[in-house]
Amino acid sequence: MFDMMKMMGKVKEVQAKMKEAQAELAQIEVEGESGAGLVKAVVNGQKQLLKIDVDDSLVNTADKDVLQDLIVAAVNKATEAADEKAKEHMKQYTEGMLPNIPGMDLGSMFNG
């Protein structure tokens, strides 16, 4: 029989672990690059851009459009990598704690 009190205890445990995991996401850092490393972006697990590094060879007003495109590409790659790391991190905290109900992906509720 389904034990509602046990389930509520698990929910509280998951909530506490999720809060801890969310706080730790700020410590995760991933890098994305474009232009064979000429532009690099660093983003944390909360999808905040932390740093942009542009190679000196690109700093020229004639290259402004290229530079802007490379920055956008680098930031997008870093954001995608941070999203994947965050999902992996959050999965570690919820693995085995939530019931496996066919058709319901309860873990996705916490992956934002």
Structural class: alpha+beta
CATH topology title of the domain at 27-97: Ybab, Chain: A
The CATH architecture assignment of the domain at 27-97 turns out to be: 2-Layer Sandwich
Strand content: 15-25%
Main beta sheet strand tally, sense and closure: 3 strands, antiparallel
What's the β-strand tally? 3
What is the average per-residue confidence, as pLDDT, rounded to a whole number? 82
Taken from the alpha-carbon principal axes, the silhouette is rod-shaped
Question: What's the tally of helices?
Answer: 2
Low-confidence segments: none
Computed Rg: 20 Å
Top-tier CATH class of the domain at 27-97 = Alpha Beta
* Helix share bin: 40-55%
CATH H-level homologous superfamily name of the domain at 27-97: Nucleoid-associated protein YbaB-like domain
Query: How is the largest sheet built, in terms of strand order?
Result: 1-2-3
> What is the N-to-C order of secondary-structure elements (H for helix, E for strand)?
HEEEH
